[in-house]
Design brief:
The chain is an alpha+beta fold and 203 residues long. It has helices spanning 2-15, 124-134, 137-146; strands at residues 40-41, 47-48, 60-70, 73-83, 88-93, 99-105, 110-113, 150-157, 163-171, 174-182, 185-190, 195-200. Residues 1-35 have low confidence and may be disordered.
């Protein structure tokens, strides 16, 4: 029961942005066009259209440990993440390695299958967060510029010699989201929606 509560809460983090987004259309047909994908409201006004899978920074195929924070609550689980030039797949696993839900994005549609989550959940918000972390800086910067936002990227060396890449999304002078990427760890903080998460594994 505790695990089910966790899973519901984790993807609720990606659902925070829906409050100001109005109604949603479920994408279900295999022949759905890209135009039918729901835009993602990075702010209450700026609408981000998902990037094509070819914009992935590098291929990923590994189990990551996922930890999410929303307010004073913390939750964690394992997630199998597959990202390449053709698809983005996230499979949520329980303690026994069994599948609790799966998200698939292949440019034309997003499909999220799980009986644990609200049917109204816009899976595009989950995909967008992953793209902010794992997709190419040049593609993200252009997409942000097109919607009136700005992506600022910096790279610094830690004491142990490992580099840390920081990605910040700004609306004017206000930082909306902050991402830190280092060897084996990605930390994402959404200041506007007040949630954060950490992925630890092979990157």
């Amino acid at each position: 029961m505790k695990r089910l509560i966790f899973l519901t809460a984790v993807l609720a983090l990606a659902y925070i942005g829906l409050i100001s987004c109005g109604s949603t259309k479920n994408v279900a047909a295999a022949d759905s066009s890209r135009a039918k994908l729901n835009p993602v409201y990075v702010t209450d006004k700026a609408q981000f259209n998902l990037l094509p899978t070819t914009a992935v920074e590098k291929n990923f195929d590994a189990v990551q440990h996922f930890k999410a924070t929303f307010g004073e609550k913390e939750f964690e689980s394992d997630v199998l993440l597959i990202a390449d030039s053709e698809k983005l797949v996230m499979t949520i696993l329980n303690n026994f390695g069994a599948t609790m839900g799966e998200l698939n994005y292949n440019n034309d549609l997003v499909v999220f299958n799980s009986d644990l989550f609200p049917k109204a959940l816009k899976a595009e918000y989950i995909v967008a967060d992953v793209q902010f972390c794992l997709y190419r800086v040049d593609a993200l910067a252009k997409a942000m510029e097109d919607i009136g936002l700005k992506l600022v990227v910096s790279i610094a060396d830690k004491i142990d010699g490992n580099s840390v890449e920081t990605r910040s999304i700004f609306e004017g002078e206000k930082e909306i989201a902050h991402i830190e990427k280092s060897i084996g760890k990605i930390t994402y903080t959404n200041f506007l929606r007040e949630y954060s998460y950490t992925l630890q594994g092979t990157f």
